[in-house]
Amino acid sequence: MAIAATAAGLVTALFGTTASAAPTPGAPGVGDPYYPNDGNGGYDVSHYNIRITYNPATDLLTGTTTILARSTQELSSLNLDLLLPIKSVRVNNFLSRTTANTGEVTVTPPSPIGNNQNLTIVVQYEGKPSTVKDAKGANYWKKTPDGALAVDEPHIAQWWFPSSDHPTDKATYDVSIVVPQGVEALSNGTFAGTQQTLNGWIRWNWRTVSQQATYLAFLAIGQYEIRSSTAPNGQPVVSAYGEDLGANGPAARASIERTPEVTEFLETQFGPYPFEAQGGVASTGIGFALETQTRPVYSTLFFPRGANTSVVAHEMAHQWFGDSVSVKTWRDIWLNEGFARYAEWLWAENQAEGTAAEIAQYYYDRRPAEDPFWQFVVGEPGAGNEFNIAVYDRGALAVHAFRNAVGDEAFFETLKIWQATKKNGNGKIEEFIALAERISGKPLFALFQTWLFTKGKPSPEDLGNPT
Ligand code: ARG
Ligand code: ZN
User: Does the interface predicted TM-score (ipTM) exceed 0.90?
Assistant: First the structure.
């Protein structure tokens, strides 16, 4: 061993092979075309232990996050994504120098890190999330009168924990939140109980054992009524309803409480539910819904006219399309929103509220060719436009056109194989098209080119509904 190492070192010294290059700084991003600084190069995270104290009265968040990771190169420094002020960083117990630049924290340990090493990165930090802005001047932390919500997409993690903030670096999580007595604190996965802290506050513990993208980790802190039950498949169901949901509260409950039933239906369409728990959170403190892993968060705005299980079908469909199989880059967002919207149509058909074909026809017909809606390129939305309505509606029409072109057997087979082979991973639009072509045996490039990458309203033949 020693002799071999010496020989290799001699070869390196003489010829400078790349096998043993000098340590270099880890890249500040993983190279997402829309958000080049998201995530970090040079290491892979396997686990986040997030331990925070939050005071709803002051918005002060005090945190210690321990990141377990492995280096993928020789590192002279590495970056973390965090906006809150840092108190200290230790890498494998060595206090390290840090410099912070609106979300990019550079951590320089006293000596370089070798390749393929276990890393334990302990970050102590403290600040008021509502007061810190990202490089674009935005703040997505949602302060509420009784607490806060850390729920957004694509960027939210950097307001509450240090991370490699990109969907390609998934990890497991333990999230532990200390709040004053009488306040509830929710996150993803299974509930691991509460403890009283030494000073009489309450610690809430949550565990995620499935791989999870950083943007799908969430916090909901405030006054909540928590309902726990067991799903027919034996999984724990924990849902939380803001204590003052107003007039829409009962409709929110009547919808979100049906999550296990919706999940069972979606399993028949996409294959086994990918995670270990279920539930939902309803709040007045947010204006949208998000597919936070295992436990989506819903705005009460979705429930103004009674039950709305469509949004539940949408967010639970994301557990497959978005959470288990995540985008490879943010450009691939059609793989999330197109399929989640289409799942609403499948669920409607199951509930005898119109067939998917009828709904697709209605969505196709209701916007005339002159509508600017048809000028949006779903397969290349551009940074900041990922949630344009066309990504959802034209995106779901693309899914239906694909179904019409290949038939139900190849269609559902493609969805299930995509889920099975990409489970806990990432996918690109081009990979989906290749799989669809392989399973159907049909050339589909032109169809997806028309629906995803070409401006203008596709023809009725492109939709392919029976006439
Ligand atoms: N993925 C979410 C959904 O299911 C959309 C999130 C939109 N983001 C936002 N900040 N409004 O619809
Ligand atoms: Zn969605």
Answer: yes
